[in-house]
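Data availability (excerpt). The following record was deposited with the supplementary files.
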Amino acid sequence: MPLSDTACKNAHKNDKAGSGKPFKLSDEKGLFLLLQPQEDGWGKWWRFKYRFEGKEKLLSLGTYPETSLAQAREKRDEARKQIAAGIDPGENRKAVKAAKAESAANSFEVIAREWGLKKVDNWEEKNHRSKRMLERNVFPWLGGKPIAEILPKDILACLRRVEDNGTIETAHRTLQICGQVFRYAVATGRADRDITHDLKGALPPAKGEHFAAITEPKEAAELLRAIDGYQGSLPAVCALKLAPLVFVRPGELRAMQWQDVNLDTAEWRFFITKTKVQHIVPLSRQAVAILQDLFPLTGRGRYAFPSERTPNGDRCMSENTINAALKRLGYGKDKMTGHGFRAMARTILDEVLGVRPDFIEHQLAHAVRDPNGRAYNRTAHLSERHKMMQQWADYLDALKAGEL
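Predicted structure:
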């Protein structure tokens, strides 16, 4: 007699003698419920018995009650259709499973991580830039897709999301990394070609600062440790230590005036001649400490960083002072410049710390507009920028200490 749902539910009661041995209850057309004793009761498995090419075989169809009687019968009927079509349902299941495993092994994320481990130095570090960019910009949408099935338009859609956040440089770098992953896939026989070549010209050109800059966290940590060991005049030392914390333009830093600095509110407010606007630089605890150390020496004068050649303090520090200090530390203009601290902050804040791009752009004193095309005022997101600048300073300290 065919089984009923009640019979399935109470099937364990058929072991009236209490033997505790496995037994089965038949339904029809080869379907039966297999009962196995377990520590917490009886396990119930659906099985389908069939013959294919003269051989008797079994196919597992799930467990009861997770798979109901009606669902088990549907699976049985589907298997019977395969048999009628000359397909062994057991072998077909193995083939499907193998295909899924192969698809997963050839997914973009699996191949990208494999490429990273084999080709990229320090890939396993928590905040590695290339890995972070892929995890944020590509994996959520294309990570599980077989790399051979990805089209140029799929990559472009990911890049557009990055571009919409106002970080075109990051979009270009993401495209470059995707290209490296695709070329690795071609070399290992899992893709026919690098499809990123088809996207040439699809993105607006990156502006580029034309200044050498260190943007890799590991290299930044080495630079920060070198700066801590710099031997020079106190104003030069303080300017060099302050540069990565405030990441303003070098001319703005050396021209800092004490009248514009409020150590109590931890803010530096000044007029930017390049953009003709007032700018506010929130000062982290670390930045305030540097300026407090400097104040007894230069606080009676106009400039925080006066020229060493002008004793009366009427002129600010030379424009070459910071670059010359970096050169003495082994960082020539081809590797790092005073202006490069802006690129360092912009890149790492976005790609490693995940700070909102508009907060970063505000702090860089770049033109940022609202949806109606109006320029935001200088106090926009000031509270969030205070938090960002402290987060940045704490990150640099941890980086310098080797904690990241």
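Summary of structural features: The first helix runs from residue 5 to 9.
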